[in-house]
Amino acid sequence: METKEALRSRRSVKVYDPTREVTDKQLAELFELTTLAPSAWNFQHYQFIAVRSPEQKKKLREAALNQEKVEQASVTLVVCGDLHAYKRADRVAQDFADKGFYGPNGQEKVEKQAKMMAETYQNNPQLARDEAIRSASLAAMSLMIAARDMGLATCPMIGFDADTVRKVVQLPEHLFPVMLVSLGYQGAEPLPRNDRLPLSEVVHIDSFGQPFQSNP
């Protein structure tokens, strides 16, 4: 499926076929594609919890305002932001040097660059949280498009109690739930897509208030 077709045909699917499972092989391919999403300094400020057991899905459904699709889908993903992604700074800086991003004498810059990257987030908790939300959201969108290309259905969810979700999947303090995403096979034809705002209302040229006018 072409990317444009995947974007145009992706839907937030509410009803899933509970008799069809997403396999480990499919999950591996899906997450491999997902981790290609961009993130600041390639820190990948996210973690995914794939909830598959009936017992865990039942608990997660209770934490998610009793949304049936949490249990009905083959997998429900807890997309988490990672506040400790900066701890990968040494590893990331070394990879940058190995790939030539720091120039011919890149090895000499690894320690300094790693320290700078880590301190950026250590000294600014709000930035660390903002970055985690951005990274997790970019990854989640990549996951949903990849899933559509693989013939799978998804739906992002923000209706949940974060503290309860944290307890259900036993998140450590440095992780927090950004969204849930149901994943499986579509169980019924979705309703027609809701209208999107016209481009003139959401796209501005050079400054706000100069709406984009597309040529027919």
Automatic annotation (TrEMBL):
Q: Which UniProt keywords apply?
A: Oxidoreductase
Q: Which residue range or ranges hold the Nitroreductase domain?
A: 7-185
What GO molecular function terms would the record report? Answer: oxidoreductase activity
Domain of life, per UniProt, equals Bacteria
InterPro entries linked to this entry:
Nitroreductase (IPR029479), Nitroreductase-like (IPR000415)
Q: Which Pfam families match?
A: Nitroreductase
Record family assignment:
Belongs to the nitroreductase family.
Protein name, as recorded: Nitroreductase family protein
Instruction: Write down the species.
Output: Paenactinomyces guangxiensis
